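Re: your question from the hallway

Yes, I did run it. Sequences:
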Amino acid sequence: MSRILLVEDEKNQRELYAAELRDDGYEVEEASDGKMAVEKVKSNKYDLVVLDIRMPEMDGIEALGKILSRDKKIPIVIHTAYSNYKSNFMTWTADAYVTKSSNLDELKTKIAEILAARGQA
Amino acid sequence: MLIKKILLNLSLYIPDVALILFLTEEGVFVPEERSHFVVVLVYFLIKISLHNIVAFFCFIKPYSAVKDILLQFQRGRYSMADSAHVLKPSACFGDLFELLRSTGRYLDNLVGSQNDEIEKFRELYNNVILSANSYFVVLNARDEVIFANKSFSANFRYTDDEILGLRLEDIFYIIPGRFSDAIDNVKKRGQSAVLRKIKLISRRKISLIADIKISRVTVQGEKQYIIVMDDITSQWRKDYQISLISQISESLQRDEEVERILYAILTAVTSGSGLGFNRAMLFLYNEQKKILTGKMAVGPDSMEEAVQIWGSVQNEELNLLGGGPDAPPVLQTNGAFYKQVVTSNFAINGNTLFADVFNKRAPVHIYDAASDPRVDPETRKFMDVSEFVVVPLCSANKALGVVVADNKFNGAPIYEDHVELLSIFAVQASLSIDSYNSLSSVKERMEHIQAKQEAIVESEKMAAVGRIAAHIAHEIRNPLVTVGGYARRILQSVKKPQKTVEDIEKAASIILHESERLEKILSNVMDFSRPSPLIREYNNLNDVVKDTYYLLKNVLQERKITATLDLEQKLPLVKSDFNQLKQVVLNLLQNAMDATPAGGSVILKTGLTETHIYIRIKDSGTGISPEAMDKIFDPFFTSKITGVGLGLAVVKKIVNDHNGEIVISNNPEGGCQFSVELLRPS
Ligand SMILES: Nc1ncnc2c1ncn2[C@@H]1O[C@H](COP(=O)(O)OP(=O)(O)OP(=O)(O)O)[C@@H](O)[C@H]1O
Ligand SMILES: [Mg+2]
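Structure:
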C-alpha cells in the first residue's frame, strides 16, 4: 500500500482529499503547511507528496525545494487553486500539476500514473 | 407721653398729699399758719430735689448708656469700643449693660462671619463674571451699559469706567440685523436668545465672530439685559481658511484666467473673514526692464470702505469665483490705492526691500517699519504702515514677483500662521502665473500627455481587471472546490450504504460554511472595485505609515524581519487621499518584505527636503537589477511565483495622481529604497 503525504492548509479540503484517497486504498498522512511537510519528509518515507502552493509559514514552492533537496526522487504533485501557475512555476521540478477541482478524478489519475510508472501501484 | 410722665411723677406725691390732708384734719397742720406752710414747702422742695438726684444717678445715666447702645445696634454696629457712655458692672443696671454689650459682641461675630461669606461669594462671582473668557455686558432698560467684565472692556479697548453708559451702537460699527432683532425680541418677550456666528466690528477696530446669548433679568424692579459673547473668531477662521485654500486650488484646476485668479487670491487674502489682511498687493517681475511692477491691489482706500468690505463678506460661504450673488465686488481699478500700486516700480538691483525678498526668495515680516534697518526709505513711504509682510512668488525654477500684505486700517497684529497661509497663497498664485505664461506650450503638451495617459489608464484598468480576476479566481476556487467535493461525497453516500448520517451532516455543514465564505469574498471584491475618492483631505503622512505598518506588523514578525519607524515629527499636512496613500505604502512594504530574507530589516522613514515631503521604504533585500529596473512599473511584470505584477503599477498611478514622484535606488550595502516624494506645502 502506497503512502501519500497530503500537504494542504485548508482543513475542510484536507479532510476531503484524505478521505477520498483513503477510500481509494492509499495510506494518507496529513500536513497543514510547508514546514510540517518538510519535517515529516525528514523522518518518514513516503511514496508521493501532494503539495498545495499558498500556505502560511512556508509556502509550497519553498517546501518543494526543501523536500527535493532531501530526496531528489520523491514524486511530487502540485495541487493548487491557481490556474495560471503553469507558465510561472518551476515546471521542471514537480512531477505533475493539478488545478484544484471538486472532481478529484484528475488528481487521482495523476497519482495512479506516477505510482504505476515507479512500479509501486 | 409728656402728660403721662408728669402724672406718673406726680403720683409719687400722693402719699404726701394724703398725709398733709390727714394732718390738716387732725389740726396739726394749719395751712393759714405761715410757718406751717413754709415747713411743708421746704419738705416738698427737699423731696423733689432728692428724688431728682437719686433718679439721675440711678436711672438717667444707665438709661442713656443703654439708649446709646441700642442706637448703635440700630446703625448695624455691634461692638461697643467707641460707645460714649460706660457703666461699671457695679453701677445701677450695670449687669443689664454688660448683658447688652455681650449681646452686641455676639451679634458682631455673627455679622462678621456672614460678611466673610458674602466676600467669598463676591470673589467667586467676580472670577466668573469679570474675568471669564466670554465677553459679558449688562444693559439697562435704556440700552446703556451698566456693567462689563474685564474681557469685554479689554478686548474692545475701553477702560472699565469709559464703557459705562455707552450704548451698543457706540461700541460697534455695525450691529448685524440678526443681533439687533434678537435684542428687540428679548425685550418684548423676555425669552433668552442664542445667536451663532455673529460678525461684529467695533468702532475701535476690533473685529470678531461670536456666538451670542442674550437674556433678560429683573433687578430691583428694573429690567436689565445680559449679553454674553463667546469669541469663536480663530476657530472659525481656521475652518474658513482651509475651505478657502481648497476652493482656490480647485478653481486653479479649472480656470486659466490668470487675472481673475490673482484677484480672487488677493480678495481671499484681504476679506475680513479670510486671511483678514486689510490690504494686499501684487508685484510681478518685468524681465526686460529688470523691475518689479505693481500689477494688482486689493484693499480699501479708507476705514469706511474697509467696513463696507467687511459687510460684504457677512455671508458664510464666500463663493470666490462663482459669480453668484455672493461673489466679491468686481475689481475696482479706480481706487486711490489701486492706482498707487499699479504705478509703482521697484528695480530688482536697487536696495529696496521688495527687491531683496524677490532676490532671496524668502518671506520677510516687518514689525516696525520706522526702525527696521531692512526697510528702505522708499518702501517706508510707499507702505506708510509699521507692520507688514512681503512674500515671494516663485515657481519651481524662477522668481516671479512678490505679494505684500498689511493691516493698515485696524492695526491688528500679523500672526505667524497668517504669514504661513499667505505663503501658501503665493505658491498657488505662482502656479497660476506659471501656467499662464506657458499656456500655449502647456496646452500642446497637455493634449499629448492626455492621449498617453488615456492609454495608460486604459491599460491599467485592464491590468486592474486582470489582477482582480486572478485574485478572485484563487480566492473563489478554494471554497468552490470544497463545496463541490463534499457535495460529491453526499451523492456517493446514497450509493454506498456504509456512509452514515453523521458523514452527510458534516459534509452539509461544511458546504454551508464554505458558501458563507464565498459570499464574504464577493462583498470584499465589491469594496475593492469601488471608485477611489477625490484627493481633498489634508493628511499626516506619519499616520499613513503607522496605519500600514500596524497592518503588516504580525507578518513582519512572522517572517523575522525587523521593521523600524523613523518618523519626522514636524511634518506639514499634505493634500492627499488617505486610503490611496495607505495602498502605496502597503504595496511597497509588501514588496520590501518579499525581497528581504529572514533576519533582514526594513526601515520606514518620513521627512522633508527643501521642496518635498517624503516616505521612504528601505529594505536589506535582493535589490533590483538594471534590466529589471526598466520594467518593474509595467503592469504584470513580476519575478514572483504568486505575484501578479500590479503592485508597483498601482503605486505609480496613485503617486502620479498626487503630483508626486517615485525615486528608486539600490543601497551600496545591499537591498533597495523606494522614496515617494510629494510636493511640500510651503
Ligand atoms: N523592494 C524590492 N526589492 C527587489 N525587487 C523588487 C522590490 N520591489 C519590487 N521589486 C521587483 O518589482 C517587481 C514588480 O513589483 P510589483 O509590486 O509591481 O509586483 P509583484 O510584487 O511581483 O506582484 P503584486 O502585484 O502582487 O504586488 C517584483 O516582482 C520584483 O521583482
Ligand atoms: Mg508587489
